[in-house]
Every structure is written in C-alpha cells, then in structure tokens.
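Record type: monomer structure entry
Structure origin: computed from sequence
Chain ID: A
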Amino acid sequence: MSLFYHIGRYSLFIRRVFSRPEKHGVFIKQVVREIDKLGVDSLGIVIIISTFIGAVITLQTSYNIDMPLIPRYTIGLAARDSILLEFSSTIVCLILAGKVGSNIASEIGTMRVTEQIDALDVMGINSKGFLVLPKVVGLMFIIPFLVILSMAIGIIGGWLAGALTGVVPSSEYIYGVQYSFKPFYVVYSLIKSVVFGFIIATVSSYWGYYTDGGALEVGKSSTMAVVSSSVLILLFNLLLTQLLLT
C-alpha cells in the first residue's frame, strides 16, 4: 500500500476518532485508566533513563571542554540546555513510542483479530472513538508531566555524576544550571511533548485498528506502529524546532 493511501486512511480514521463521546462518564473513566496504564506505568523507565542520560551528558561535556579558559559552570549550563531542549522531550518520547506505542498497537490489534471491534460496531458503538480517544487524551495529558519529571531527574543525575566523580564542583554545576535560564525552553519542550503524545497514540492505534490476519500480523502492526511513530516524532521535532526557536 502506498504512502498516500495510509495518509488518506489515517485522516479519515482521525476524523472518526474525534467524534463526540457517547457517554461522558464512561469516557472519563477510560481516560483515567489509560493515564494509569500508559503513563504512570512508564515512570520507572523515565526515571532510570533520565538519571543515566543526565549523568552521561555531564561527564561527556566535562571531558570535551577540559580547557583552563572555559569556566566549569558551563558544564551545568550545557547539561541543562541539552536536557531541556532535546533529551526530556524528544528522546523520552522516542522511548515511550517503543514502550507505549507497541502496547497500544498490540492491544487494539488483538481486539481486531479476535473480532471484539466488530462486536462493538455491531452494537452501534463508534469503535474508533470508544477505543482510541481515551488513549489520545490520556497520553496528551500525562506525557508533559513525564517530561517535566525527566527534566528534573536528568539535571539531578548530572549533578550527582559531577559531584561524585569530582569533574565539576556542586556550586559550579548549580550556578551553570541557573545561569541565563530561559523559561521558554520548558514551554517549548512541553509543546513538543503534547504533539508527540498525539502522534504516539493515534499512529499506534491506527496500525492496531487496521490489523488484518492473526497473531503474526499483530506483531507486524506493533513494529509498524513503533517505526512510524519514531519517524514522525523526529520529523515533527525538526518542524517544531524550526517554528518555535527561530
């Protein structure tokens, strides 16, 4: 199938997903469940990765600018900007595309091959909106919180690495983190995280919803969901950076 075929079918899919929920009470319960399942369950991996990446950024920056003319606080400055601008939004969302995206695609794909989605359609329920919209709203709500947590943990991880290895004194690192801080960097990352959350939820649901076959095809749909989401995240990262930072 051609790229334009998938773009057209995805557009029609999205239009149907955002139709009005039939029962708002049920919808809210589904959103809360998706937030817990897709977002809260990802806290562990976000904390672990953010800690180690913050430490690695600090150590690599220290070794690369080991010159007497460059003040040590620039290590904290470089670590802060790297984490705020790119790591905590783009890299974390790429990781979530693998964890959460494959989960969504396999869940909906399994429902498709076991004819549960057909049963919803027969009962007159908008299966696209019923299954997908809570995931979209849940991810777009929870991912910005995960990104904020990643920012804080990454900076703390960098501080711990610098302090424990002695490559940068704590006072110098903290001064660099505070130096010439631009709050818009946080806003920029949060805007990206909302867009990336929408991409992960809708693209993964699209591939899962249109799974055709058996268990083998569910695996293929999960793979396509992760690959497509990752490529679109990188593409929109470039576009949003061009739009928001230039």
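Annotation 1: Residues 25-245 form one domain.
Annotation 2: Residues 73-113 form the longest helix (41 residues).
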